[in-house]
Amino acid sequence: MLSKVIYPSNRFSIAPMLDWTDRHCRHFHRVMSKNTLLYTEMVTTGAILYGKGDYLKKGDAEHPVCLQLGGFAALDLAKSALAGKERGYDEINLNVGCPSDRVQNGRFGACLMAEGDLVGDAVKAMQDASGLPVSVKTRIGIDDLDSYEFLCDFIDKVHNKGCDTFIIHARKAWLSGLSPKQNRDVPPLDYERVYQLKKDFPQLTIAINGGIKTLDECEEHLKHLDGVMLGREVYSNPYILSSVDQRLFKGQGKVLTRFEVLEEMYPYIEQQLSDGSYLNHIARHMLGLFQGLPGARAWRRHLSENGHISGSCIKTMQKAASFVTENQ
Q: Is 152 marked active-site?
């Protein structure tokens, strides 16, 4: 019997993806699921505190939405978490899973698994500053620090400073020798280790990530854990989200057809175009909407070839959709 979920929004979430999970992507995903927890792409503390751009921009329709931070210094993370609260984010997440060289050089991401006390102090600082729930997304190990005892020690140290929610990518990370892409595929998945973690820390909210492609798999994981995070499958086949509320959130919400999803997006697209966005800024997230249907390739091609042109508009998208036959 699973313990009560501390933060129910973590029952199903979409993994943050650098240079992809922007506000347009999140709005598109929200149209299909009202309950899914959405994430920003990872935003570094340096970008928030010293950058010239607005890295925290979001739409009012995105809730529940979590700001994922990259950093290691407790004070900077606390200031960034407070900025996230002031901009209306519902939760804060600390990235302790990204294995890229650039991230390691900044002393954040997966390398922080070796510094559990530091991560715990950072979590406490973020919670104290913002008053928001703070979760940690991590791996099951790094390099040769990949024993179950190491993982439990890390979880214990961070939990003792106040973190009750962990999203576990069920692979370890190699900090050297593998590219970020290879780190998503080469280290073997170990779902059983994450299941065991929940058994040994029943008071925590534990969600799983890594290699999950279907809602059937999500339902199987939810027999053992509190939450599931779906990754790249959502970006290639976004329509999978249309059934999430019905299947994973007790039958809530209507399942929209693909064309209904498209129509729901039109007011948002028109508003964004009037604010100066180009159609392709939004359309790039929607290319997989009709995956598997007759005309899907023509839909993608028309948007890819025309969405970046100045003056492209709703009519451009309607033309692209005219190539598709919905067989459901």
A: no
Please identify which of the residues 66, 98, 111, 218 carries the catalytic annotation: 98
Backbone φ, ψ for residue 166 (5° rounding): -130, 135
The domains found in the chain, sorted by start residue, are 8-247 (3.20.20.70), 258-321 (1.20.120.1460)
Summarised one tens digit per residue, pLDDT across range 141-184 is 998 999 999 999 999 999 999 999 999 999 998 887 767 777 67
Cα 26 to Cα 37: distance, rounded to the nearest angstrom: 10
Q: At what angle are helices 116-130 and 74-86 packed, to 10 degrees?
A: 30
Compute the chain's Rg from CA coordinates: 20
Beta strands in the chain (DSSP E): 12-14, 38-39, 43-44, 65-70, 91-96, 134-139, 165-169, 205-209, 227-230
208-265 residue pLDDT tens: 999 999 999 999 999 999 999 999 899 999 999 999 999 999 877 789 999 999 999 9
Helix (H, G, I), strand (E, B) or coil at 66: strand
Structure tokens at 156: 């214990």
Give exposure, 228-257, as e/b (b: 16+ Cβ within 10 Å): bbbbebbbeebbbbbebbeebbeeeeeebe
CA distance 16 to 37: 11
Number of alpha helices (DSSP H) and beta strands (DSSP E) in the chain? 15, 9
Contacts of 51 (CB under 8 A, 6+ apart): none
